Amino acid sequence: MKSGPTLSPLKLSALLALLLLSLAVVSLGIGEVFFPPWQWPAALGGPESAAYQSILWDIRAPRTALALVAGAMLGLAGAVLQGYTRNPLADAGILGITGGSSLAAVLAIYSGFAVAWPLGLPIAALGGGILTTLLVVWLAGRGGDVQTLVLAGAAVAAFTAALTSLALNLAPNPYAGMEIVFWLLGSVKDTSWNQVALASPFCAAGFLLLLGTRRGLQALALGDDAAATLGVNLSGLRLRVIAGTALAVGPVCAAAGSIGFVGLVVPHLLRPWVGHDPGRLILPSALGGACLVLMADITSRLIPTPSNEEIKLGVLTALVGAPFFFALIFKMRRTLP
Amino acid sequence: MGPACRSPEGSQIRWKNPVKHRVPSKESVEPGRPTFYLPGVRIRWSLFLALAAIAAACPHPLEASPPPPVLHPQRIVSINLVSDIILLDLVDPGRIVALSWLAADPDTSPVADRASGFPKTRGQVEAILPLKPDLVIGTLWGQDRTLKLLEQIRIPVHRIELAQNYREIESTIRSLALAVGETERGESLISRMHERLAALRSSQEPPRGGAVWLSQAGFNNGENELSREILLDAGWLPMGTGSYSLESLVIRPPGAVIEARYQVDHPTLASRLRQHPAVRNLPAQTLVIRLADFLSASHLTPSVSEELRKQSLP
Lengths: 337, 314
What we know:
- The structure holds 2 protein chains of 2 kinds.
- Chain A has helices spanning 9-29, 40-45, 49-85, 97-111, 113-116, 120-140, 146-170, 174-184, 193-211, 214-220, 224-229, 234-256, 262-270, 278-302, 313-335.
- Chain A is mainly α.
- Chain A has a single domain, classed as ABC transporter involved in vitamin B12 uptake, BtuC (Orthogonal Bundle).
- In chain B, 50% of the residues lie in helices and 13% in strands.
- Chain B has helices at 3-6, 12-29, 32-57, 59-63, 81-90, 112-115, 125-128, 140-152, 166-179, 183-201, 225-233, 246-251, 270-274, 277-280, 291-295, 302-311; strands spanning 76-78, 96-100, 120-121, 135-139, 157-160, 210-215, 218-220, 237-238, 256-261, 285-290.
- In chain B, strands 3-2-1-4-5 form a 5-stranded parallel β-sheet, with helices on both faces. In chain B, strands 6, 7, 8, 9 and 10 form a 5-stranded mixed β-sheet that branches.
- In chain B, helix 5 (81-90) links the parallel strand 1 and strand 2.
- Mean pLDDT of chain B is 82; it is low at 1-40.
- The chains are: A mainly alpha, B alpha/beta.
- The A-B interface holds A 31-33, 48, 51, 54-55, 58-60, 109-110, 112, 114-115, 172-173, 175-176, 178-179, 182-183, 189-190, 192-195, 306-309 and B 216-218, 240-248, 250-251, 262-263, 266-273, 275-278, 281.
C-alpha cells in the first residue's frame, strides 16, 4: 500500500476537475423538465426562453453550485481533520462539528434570527461549529490521543443531536418539527443563489485557511516533536484547523442541512493515489467531495419515489458512507495485531 | 512407551505420577463444578420466574375485553381535534366533560370560540380519570396506547378514523353519532354538509385552471383525496399527484397557489422557499386559507372550498 505517488496531485486534481465539470453539466441538464445541454441553444432562443432560462439559471444552477461548494468543503475538512488527527475516522460529522452547526442553524431559524438578518444563519452555524470544535478539543485534552478525540467528538455529536431534538420538541410551531427533520436530512433542492452567496464567502475563507495547513500536516505526519523541530507552530496549526473547519462546514450546514460521510469517504478513496501524503490529499479531496455530492444530488433526482418527492441528499450519502465505514472497521481489524 | 506404563504396579514412583497428575486436575474440577452449575441453576430459576411473571401478566390483556358501551353517554371526553369539532355539533354542551387542548387554539381549531368554555385535556390517562368519563373519543393515530389503557381500566372508548375524503367524513360522523346515541343529529349534520357541497358544485362556472398547494414541505398537489375534492369544489383543477417541483412550477405554472397558513408570525423554512426567484416571479394568484379550517376533516370542511371560491378572481 505504501507505494510512491501514483499520480502527481496536480494531475489527480486535473482529472477530478474534469470529472467535476462533466458532472456539473449533467446536473444542469437533469431535472423534472427534460432539458439536456444540446437543446439549450434552441430553447433559450425560442418563444419560451424565459421559462427555460429560469429553470437553468434560477433552479438548476444554484443547486449545482451549492452541491459543489458543500461537497468541496466537506471533503476538504475531512482530509484536513484526518491529517491533523492522524486518524482515518476523523470527519466533521463524526467529530460533532456538523452537529453543532446544525443545532445553531436550527435555533437561528426558529428564533426568527435568520429571517430578521439573512447573514445570521451562516454566522450562527459558523459559531456553532467553532463552539463544538473547541468543546471537542477541550474534552480530548491538550495532549489527548486520537481515540479520546474521536470519542469526545462522538459524545459531542450525540449531545448536539439531543439538543436539536429538544429544539424540535420545543418548537413554537408543531409543523416546524417535520421541517427540522427533513432539513436535517440534508438537501440542496430548491436552493436559490441567495443561499449560495451567503455561504460562499465564509467557505472561501475556510478553504484558504485549510489549504494553508498543507505543510503543517505533512510535518505532523512525522509526529508532534518532529513537526515542532521542523519549525511548525503546533498551536497555530491547531487554531487554523479549528477555524478553517468551522468556516468551511458551518455555512454549508446552514444552507444544505447535514450531509454526512463525505469527509470520511473521499479522503480514503483518494489517499492511495497521492502516496498517503496528508498535504497532497487536501486539494484532490475538495474536488472529490464536490464530485461525490454532485453525483449524489444527480442520483437523488433520478430515483423515482411514490410521492414524487426527491430522496434527501444526506440519506444517499449516508447509504454510501455507512457501509464504507463498516468496510473501514473490518480493514482496521485486519491490520491490528 | 516402557512396560511401566502397561503395569502401573511395577513401580511406585511411576504409579504415583499419574495419580499426582490426577489430583490437581480433580481439584480444579471440583471447585469448578459448583461455580459452573450454580449460575445454570440461577438462570433456570430466573427463567422460571420470568415465565411465571409473563403468565401472571398474560390474563390481563386477555381478560380486558372492551367494556360494554354506554348507550347514551353523559360524561364525554374527546382527546382528538376532529372529534372535538364534530362533537360540539352533535351533543348538548352539558354532556361534554372535556375537549382536547387544540380545540380552543384559534391556530388549529375552526371552533375555537365555542370550545373555549370547556375544560381541556392533553390526553393523559391520569388527567382523564378524575373526570369520570363514560366515553372517551380518540383516534388510532398516536392515541391508541392511551385508549387501550383506558379500556383496561374499563372506561368505554370510541376510535374515530381520520377521513381522507368526503365519503370517509360521512362514515366518521355516522359512527361517532352512534357511539354518543345521537344518530338523528348525526344524519342531519351529514345532510347539511351535502347541501353545502351541492351548492358549491351547482355553480355553472367553467373550471378556473390548475392550482397547487404550498405546504411546509414545498409545493404539492395536496396530501390526499380530500384536498383534491376541496380544489374541485372551489372550481380549480388539481395538477397531478405528489409533490410539484419548482421546475414544473416554471414550465406549467398553476393559476393559483393555495396556502394553508398557520402562525404566520413564526418563521419557518417555507418562508425561504417563498423568496426563491422562481416562486416570486410566478404569475399565479395566491389564495390563503386558515390551516385551522383545513386541518381537520369534518362536516365543516366545505367552508374551505367556499372561502377559496370567494377569494378566486374571475
